[in-house]
Amino acid sequence: MRKKLIAANWKMYKTPAETRDFFRDFLPLIQNHDRNNNDEIVVCPTYLCLDAAIAAAKDSDVSIGAQNLYWEKQGAFTGEVSAAMLVAVGATHVIIGHSERRQYFGETDDTVNLKLKSALEAGLTPIVCVGEVLEEREAGLTDDVLRRQCLRAFHKVSAKKAASLVVAYEPVWAIGTGKTATPQIAADAHAIIRAEAAESFGQEFADKLRILYGGSVKPENAHSLMSEEGIDGALVGGASLDPKSFAAIVKY
Ligand code: 13P
């Protein structure tokens, strides 16, 4: 049985004060709920708010992750943050290869691979994002795109080292658009990703791999998505910014 993981990707939203306000309101809302197989909850604010989030979540079951990292340990890399630095402030998770980073910041399958290796090396739980754009889906290329993104992300990563790996399927056409993949579309894509993981790491690894769905997840669709056999959680953007709506998703 795979433990579900529900993660908030706050993108470029919230100041430290707003981060503290969020946790003040959010934590009481999830305190007594039946944790549905003890699902894991992760919140990923900007680098600037990691400290505030980690302090606010200290006595809760909520873990804190970053939205990005750089693969070198340290050096003359202006504006970048290493895996070791994230660990040093108390982050436990990191999102890698989000489509917005691929689209606007030149992230490629190769940089995703380098980032994945450095995150694993530092003991962070990586959440590697993959997903097709609309034109690729319409051209029948979803399968190829997902396989390529996974294959390259996993290049020269061993199953042993990758034990904590989490993959998020985020169809780009469903991000911030209000268009959600149907549970069936998501489940089909998750099956492709799991098959690719089986080829890279073996069947046993693939059976344990958690694959999250992301793209317009809301309180109204969380339950049906999360009820699909191959969907092991959610990566939530817009709806995670509001404590009530993220709490409702956590309680799906
Ligand atoms: P939305 O939930 O706003 O569509 O964003 C999804 C996402 O990109 C999460 O990483």
Describe the protein's architecture and organization:
The longest helix is centred in the last third of the chain and has 19 residues. The model has no long low-confidence stretch (mean pLDDT about 95). Helices cover about 40% and strands about 15% of the residues. It is globular, with a radius of gyration of 17 Å. It is an alpha/beta fold. β2, α2 and β3 form a beta-alpha-beta unit. An eight-stranded parallel barrel has the order 1-2-3-4-5-6-7-8, surrounded by six helices. It has one domain: Aldolase class I (TIM Barrel). The protein is built from eleven helices and eight strands. The two termini are about 20 Å apart. The site of 1,3-dihydroxyacetonephosphate has 14 residues, from β8.
Descriptive labels:
8 strands, globular, binds 1,3-dihydroxyacetonephosphate, alpha/beta, 252 residues, TIM Barrel
Give the SSE layout.
Layout lengths: L4 E5 L6 H15 L9 E5 L5 H7 L5 E5 L16 H7 L3 E4 L2 H6 L4 H14 L2 E6 L3 H5 L3 H12 L12 E4 L13 H19 L1 H6 L1 E5 L4 H8 L6 E4 L6 H8 L2
Parallel strand pairs: 1-2, 1-8, 2-3, 3-4, 4-5, 5-6, 6-7, 7-8
The structure holds 1,3-dihydroxyacetonephosphate.
The kinds of small molecule bound in this structure are: 1,3-dihydroxyacetonephosphate
Q: Which segments are poorly predicted (pLDDT under 50) over 5 or more consecutive residues?
A: none
**What is the CATH topology?**
TIM Barrel
Tally of discrete structural domains = 1
Morphology call: globular
Major β-sheet profile = 8 strands, parallel, barrel
N-to-C terminal Cα separation, in Å?
A: 18 Å
> If classified by CATH, what would the architecture be?
Alpha-Beta Barrel
Please write the string of helix (H) and strand (E) elements. EHEHEHEHHEHHEHHEHEH
- Tally of separate helices: 11
In angstroms, what is the radius of gyration?
17 Å
Number of strands: 8
Strand content: 15-25%
